[in-house]
Amino acid sequence: MLKKLKSLSIAQWIAIFIFVSMGISMIFITIEIFLAPVKQTAGQPKETLRSDYIFLLFECVLGVIILLLPTIISRRFKFEIPGLVYILFLVFLYASIYLGTVQKFYSTVPHWDKILHTFSGAMLGAIGFSFVNLLNNDEHVVMKMKPGFLSVFAFCFAVTLGAFWEIYEYTFDGLMNLNMQRYELSNGTPLVGRAALADTMGDIIVDVIGSLVFVLIGYWALKKGKPWMKNFEFKKRVPKEE
Fold first, then answer.
1. What is the Cα–Cα distance from 154 to 211, expressed in whole angstroms?
2. Position 103 in a domain
3. Domain identity same for 129 and 226
4. Is residue 183 domain-resident?
5. Residue 95 included in any domain
6. Fewer beta carbons below 10 Å: N end or C end of the chain?
7. Is 72 found in the same domain as 124?
8. In terms of domains, do 131 and 218 share one?
9. Per-residue pLDDT of the chain (242 residues; tens, 9 = 90+)
């Protein structure tokens, strides 16, 4: 057992830490679901309702599923995820779900949402590069893609996933009366016109900026043959010889 623990990588230790953090949070959130009020009390400051805790529990469960996805996908399709990319993914997951939602950094830390959207744009750009490069290096794929096409795909991949996230926020704001898209103030006053669109458009803009910056750097690195781009490359898993 001790030998197995010593063999764990930094990324695996981070994943275990996040898993434990989420698990403990889910226990306390479940307790709060039974204690929280169902409806807002008239004339009282805005309270955290049962539906809020249910959504919080849903996000934690979703976070655990997402945490396990890279391992499941890499084993299923027999490729290795670079340690650097996996660590960036874990940091984003922890910062967005645990710190952002559970610890309420989105409402207490200025610009936390925009920082994460910028970071995610760059991270998704890196994953887009890695995915296409994996196909590019596959002996079964006849067509070889040039750095320009790789860059365009990585950019579109990152921005598309950013758009899907905004659809997710819009959907659950409507279903559960949430305020992820910041269309109302903290006291419940609804925003009107451009003010109501500011958060969503700001998220999309920083998504584009983050992904564009990484893609341009990645394009330059591929054209110049810079070796550090190999840190972002997915690799086919080579079967062990018996």
1. 8
2. no
3. yes
4. yes
5. no
6. C
7. no
8. yes
9. 555 656 678 888 999 999 999 999 999 999 999 998 888 777 667 778 888 899 899 999 999 999 999 889 888 888 888 888 899 999 999 999 999 999 999 989 999 999 999 999 999 998 888 888 777 766 665 567 788 888 999 999 999 999 999 999 999 888 878 888 888 887 778 888 888 889 999 999 999 999 999 999 989 988 887 777 777 777 776 655 54
Residue with tokens 């958060």: 199
Same domain (yes/no): 153, 52 = no
Q: Does residue 4 sit within a domain? A: no
Q: Which residue has the tokens 């959207």?
A: 117
What distance in Å separates the CA atoms of residue 34 and residue 27, rounded to the nearest whole number?
A: 12
Domain that holds residue 197: 110-234
Do 86 and 119 contact (CB within 8 A), yes or no? no
3-state secondary structure of 79: strand
